[in-house]
Amino acid sequence: MKYDLIAPDVKYIGVDDLDIDLFEGQYDVPLGVSYNSYLIEDEKVAIMDTVDATKTQEWEQNLEKALDGKTPDYLIVQHLEPDHGGSVQYIMEKYPQMIAVCSQKAVAMFKRFFEKDFSDRIQVVKEGETLSLGQHTLQFFMAPMVHWPEVMVTYDQQAKILFSADGFGKFGALCKEEEDDEGWACEARRYYFNIVGKYGAMVQNLLKKVATLDIQQICPLHGPVLSEDLGYYIGLYDTWSKYEPENEGIFIAYCSLHGNTAEAALKLADIIKEKSNVKVSTSDIARDDLHEAVEDAFRYDRMVLCAPTYDGGIMPIMEDFINHLRIKTYQNRKVAFVENGTWAPASGKKMREQMEAMKNITIIEPLVTVESTVKAKTIEDLKVLADALIHNA
Ligand code: FEO
To answer: 368 and which of 28, 109, 128, 381 could share a cystine (Cβ 3.0–4.6 Å)?
Structure first.
């Protein structure tokens, strides 16, 4: 286990999951994921969240070791999604005197998730309320839709720790952190935009609530405990949740039936690089990780969608990608298009219609039409588009 003692009286008791194939049944996690859980040992002993049901046994071993014969008094349930609530019923049954502390909205979810009725063992806390463990006083702040409605975060006033639920979470098991050479932001960004991205306004509300707290450490439910340079992480969350681009740059997302649209997309990337120092990132959305493409779409200020016409519309994988962006409330960006068609090109018009329906989207002209294959005329058109993209920061 990577952590033991986080702060005096505060122990890490979470687990890594390297067996998982897809997080939430959809997100590729090549370095696994961690389900974080913590123990605060004071006059009263509090467990901070549980873990996925597939890892109950390993978590229980960590818990027992940390408890060292003590009995827990409280289970603080910040989030009941099964990756954190999956061991709640088990541990509540094991320690029948233990009280679950949660938000009002979590109460109904207890009944939905657990066969056993725990109603008489639930202590509901409201915004700003506190719970004294002895030296440690826990203060609770409601964080609805970061990432479910029942979510709350917890501030340990003595240890100056913010237990941030899914907020500031990151893909990747803790035992694999050293293999993740792209730094915290890369997988934290993919996690944020794909999982919490729709709820930027709620994240902003939470950031405002905790802005006045003296936070020395952030303990999320996934990924590393954050102990230094907290302004960096909070600043990124502020940018992301305001839907502001994090970096100037051009993201080119493409798909291709027979390689011709891909050739045009990659040629456009080359032309931009030849003409400027503007950062360019590309993704073959049919072969690369689609959720990383969503991340890059939000990361940069400009995006080019390149897709062939298919059955009179857009190649389905691009339609799927655009739908992902719509669901995650993509906005405040500049977008251009490259289409392809052999007898009736239509994908450019249809992509534009779908993107224009999103908030504050500026279209960069011209639309480049690849007439089946990339020719000298296509290259000239791509050069014009490259100029427009370069000068439209
Ligand atoms: Fe990590 Fe929303 O669960």
So the answer is: 381
Residue 202 has a CB neighbour count (10 Å cut-off) of 18
Distance (Å) from CA 288 to ligand 1 centroid: 24
Name the pairing type of β-strands 99-102 and 122-124. Answer: parallel
pLDDT beyond 90 at 29:
yes
Do the Cβ atoms of 111 and 117 come closer than 8 Å? yes
> Which uninterrupted H or E stretch holds 294?
helix 290-299
Tens of pLDDT, residues 107-118: 999 999 999 999
Supply the residue whose CA is at minimum distance from atom 1 of ligand 1: 166
C-alpha 347 to ligand 1 mean position (Å): 36
The answer to whether residue 120 scores a pLDDT higher than 60 is: yes
Strand, coil or helix: what is 22? strand
Å from CA of 79 to ligand 1 middle = 7
Asked whether the predicted pLDDT for residue 2 surpasses 90, the reply is no
The DSSP-derived string for 362-382 is: EEPSPPEEE-SS--HHHHHHH
pTM: 0.96
Instruction: Determine the atom of ligand 1 nearest the C-alpha atom of 148.
Output: 2
Query: Would you say residue 1 has pLDDT above 70?
Result: no
Q: What angle do CA 62, 63, 66 make, to 5 degrees?
A: 85
